[in-house]
Each structure stands twice: as structure tokens, then as C-alpha cells.
Design goal:
The protein is an alpha+beta fold. The chain is elongated, with a radius of gyration of 19 Å. It has helices spanning about 10-15, 25-30, 90, 115-125, 125-150, 155-165, 180-185, 190-205, 220-225, and strands at about 1-5, 35-40, 45, 55-60, 60-70, 75-80, 85, 100-105, 105-115, 175, 210, 215. Helix 6 crosses helix 8 (about 190-205) and helix 7 packs across helix 8. It contains 9 helices and 12 strands. It has a 5-stranded antiparallel sheet.
Length: about 230
């Protein structure tokens, strides 16, 4: 992991939804405890059990958050891409990281040190509200993912995933999968083989066309009906 120059930190923070409402003085305070970094595809940012060093923001690229089950199977929590943050829980709750983070693409990120965040939040509740909004959004997404896994069968889960990640509201659209099929299968709590079989069935039923990470949805209406 290669450290980067800190000069553009304020500019980066002011352009993100989570921090856009902060004034210049507050951004300067955050910059004092911030650092830019770069990780390569496949490189670990941190492991489960590591000391929580602060909040991370993805400027460009993608990082997956995951943990390993007792039998060593990787369980994907989520992927975080441009403009998104993770790790806000470490500011509010003490303890080590409860998940691992790894680059799935070459990624430029920004780390905001926990101590600095604590100091700024004590002086200005605007930052606290921003972090709580971000954390609440992630919790809502996790609850939605859990609901999908519990209440839907494997075909419904895959169909729901494809609809949920639709780039437009068009009836017919193309979707570039954000992760590889093995990672998506883990997120949907199905095996990679099951995920591939479901894609094959949806293709035979005329709902999609699949080639690699590119999925062409032929009918969003029918796919939504399939998702239940």
C-alpha cells in the first residue's frame, strides 16, 4: 500500500455527499488526520481482527468487504466503489475490525483517522449526523440483503439482484456486474454453481442474455415478477 500526497484531501472531501455540508475550517481539521493511499487489485487493506484505524472512503476503484466462515468460505458483505465510505462503526463503537477489506480493482482511497473524527464530532455535530446517515444507509442495505436471502429462493434472489442493480428504469437494459460471479453468489448465499444455473435458466426463459459480466435484461417487468 503506497502513501499518496495529502494536498487534494479537502477537495476530495468537499465533493463527497457525506462531507459536502461541512465548512472549510472543519474540512481543514479533518485533513490533519487524513491520508490518501493506493492499493492494487487483490491487495488487502486490512483483515478481520485488525485495529480499527478510522473511516475509509473510495475515491476511485472498488473494495470488497467480507469475512470467512468457519469452513473457510468467503462471505461477501458488500462492495464499495467511487464516492462511498465504510468503517463508520469504528468511530462509535470500540473494538477491532469485524470484517476484512480487499481491493477488487486498483483503488485510490482516503483514510480519516478515528481520533481526528472524534475531536471534530465533539466540536461540530454536523459530522456526526453525516456519519450516522452513511452508517444507517449501509445498515438498511444489509437488512434488505438479509431479507432477500431469507424470503426468496435462489432464482428469486438472482432475479431480484439483477433488478435491484438496474442502471435505468428502462424495460430493456444492459447491466455490467460489479463483482465476479463467485463474489455475487456469496452475497446472495448461493453456490457459484447455483448462480450459474440460475443465469442459464433465466436465459432459456428469455428474460436475460448473459456473456461474462455483461447481462442484458430483456424485460425488467418479467424479471421483477420472477423476483416475487
Amino acid at each position: 500500500m503506497c502513501p499518496q500526497s495529502k494536498d487534494p484531501v479537502c477537495h476530495v472531501l468537499s465533493g463527497l455527499d457525506q462531507f459536502g455540508s461541512l465548512d472549510a475550517d472543519t474540512l481543514q481539521e479533518l485533513q490533519a488526520g487524513a491520508s490518501l493511499y493506493r492499493i492494487s487489485r487483490g491487495e488487502m487493506l486490512f483483515h478481520k481482527g485488525d485495529s480499527a484505524d478510522g473511516v475509509h472512503l473510495v475515491i476511485e476503484g472498488e473494495i470488497k468487504l467480507f469475512f470467512l466462515s468457519a469452513n473457510g468460505t468467503e462471505k461477501l458483505i458488500s462492495t464499495v466503489s467511487d464516492g462511498e465510505s465504510f468503517g463508520e462503526e469504528c468511530v462509535l463503537l470500540p473494538g477491532p475490525r469485524r470484517f476484512s477489506a480487499q481491493g477488487t480493482r486498483d483503488t485510490v482511497g482516503l483514510r480519516l483517522r478515528k481520533q481526528t473524527l472524534d475531536e471534530v464530532m465533539a466540536a461540530d455535530c454536523t459530522l456526526a449526523r453525516a456519519l450516522l446517515r452513511s452508517l444507517s444507509g449501509r445498515m438498511d442495505a444489509l437488512m434488505e440483503s438479509m431479507e432477500n436471502c431469507v424470503q426468496r429462493n435462489s432464482i428469486q434472489r438472482v432475479a431480484y439482484y439483477l433488478v435491484q442493480h438496474a442502471p435505468t428504469s428502462s424495460e430493456r437494459y444492459e447491466l455490467q456486474l460489479a463483482a465476479n460471479k463467485q463474489e455475487i453468489a456469496a452475497q446472495l448465499n448461493v453456490t457459484p454453481e447455483t448462480f450459474s444455473r440460475v443465469l442459464g435458466r433465466l436465459t432459456r426463459d428469455g428474460l436475460i442474455r448473459s456473456q461474462g459480466r455483461c447481462i442484458e435484461v430483456m424485460s425488467q417487468h418479467l424479471l421483477r415478477a420472477c423476483a416475487g
